[in-house]
Write a structure and sequence with these properties.
This protein is mainly α and 191 residues long. Helices cover 75% and strands 0% of the residues. It has ten helices and no strands. Helix 2 packs antiparallel against helix 3 and helix 8 packs across helix 9.
Length: 191
């Protein structure tokens, strides 16, 4: 009986070591850490009862949460801000957060908090997107081929990136890159 208890302690220790090793390198979610630990246990802890292993993994994840090593809410807020600064649309962000295994309620609450405290984030992301793609006010070629065709192409680019028509239209109505950058600076100064 004593040997079995020592063996349990080794399982806890190896799972916790794997969790800490992973979390020291990557920011993670509960779901991702659970997948990592299950994968690790499938590979290295095959002899252990799967029911006991599930309990141990749940305890390790809870311990990581208690110590603040994983926090899905903070992870979500950081990803939203990162994606906005990369010029990603709200739809793109939601899709990727769901892929991380973040719950719908956490995503909605984080978006509501982020967008209520910082206005015009969709516009900010769209301007950054236009700058990266050199479209709209950032278009640099001196001779524009067919303006209508070019405008449709730009609207399509915005749509594929997940921006709605109204935001796309506002960005494409800027006369120059200077005007767009000025608008972007004013957004940043308000926040």
């Amino acid at each position: 009986m004593k040997e079995n208890h020592e063996y349990t302690l080794d399982i806890k220790k190896s799972l916790m070591n794997k969790a800490l090793s992973y979390l020291s390198k990557f920011s993670s979610t509960e779901n991702k850490l659970n997948k990592i630990l299950n994968s690790f246990s499938d590979k290295y802890l095959k002899t252990v009862n799967s029911e006991q292993l599930s309990k141990e993994i749940a305890l390790v994840i809870q311990k990581c949460k208690d110590h603040g090593y994983i926090d899905d809410i903070e992870f979500t807020k950081n990803k939203i801000e990162k994606y906005i600064n990369l010029g990603k649309s709200e739809k793109y962000i939601i899709f990727n957060l769901k892929n991380y295994g973040i719950s719908k309620s956490i995503i909605e609450a984080s978006f509501e908090e982020f967008f209520s405290s910082q206005k015009d984030n969709d516009m900010k992301a769209a301007i950054i997107f236009a700058r990266k793609k050199n479209i709209g006010p950032f278009y640099k070629k001196p001779d524009k081929p067919n303006p209508d065709k070019l405008l449709n192409k730009w609207f399509s680019s915005f749509a594929r990136a997940g921006f709605n028509y109204e935001v796309s239209k506002k960005i494409l109505n800027f006369e120059s890159s200077f005007e767009a950058e000025n608008f972007l600076c004013n957004i940043d100064n308000k926040q």
